[in-house]
Write a structure and sequence with these properties.
This protein is an alpha/beta fold. It has helices at residues 29-37, 50-54, 58-63, 82-94, 109-113, 124-128, and strands at residues 7-9, 12-14, 19-20, 42-44, 48-49, 73-78, 99-102.
């Protein structure tokens, strides 16, 4: 009996449910490609600040770069402001992300002080009723 099943999220489908977690400072393009060749169904890039993208931070902008062999790839965005999150999601989509993941679970104090990460879970209406 196999525990590996196809993964379907909305219109997106991956060959299996083996997902590489977004790990800051570890998951880069070469690592993503190796994991996909090793059997991952989806790889996730490390989280990118919507705020930094809004202000044109070059390092954050480079984090959205997706190589042709890196698919399927999910981009994780974190932020607290609806407009900057929406803008960041559009940038990630334009760069080739297959999935946009809004981080609503990060417990890091620096992220939470900005109103992002798991703090978003405190306002379910804000988090759940908007289309980013």
């Amino acid at each position: 009996m196999s525990y590996i099943h196809p993964l379907k999220i909305g219109n997106f489908s991956a060959p299996n449910n083996l997902v590489l977690a977004p790990m800051a400072g570890i998951t880069d393009t070469p690592f993503h490609i190796l994991c996909l060749k090793g059997g991952a169904g989806l790889v996730c890039a490390e989280m990118v600040s919507a705020h930094a993208l809004h202000y044109g931070n070059p390092k954050s902008g480079r984090m959205l770069t997706v190589a042709e062999k890196e698919h399927p790839v999910s981009m994780q965005i974190f932020g607290a402001d609806e407009q900057t999150i929406q803008e960041a999601a559009r940038q990630a989509q334009a760069q080739g992300a297959d999935i946009i993941d809004l981080n609503a679970g990060c417990p890091v104090k620096k992220i939470n002080k900005a109103g992002a990460g798991c703090v978003l879970m405190k306002d379910e209406l804000k988090l759940g009723t908007r289309k980013y």
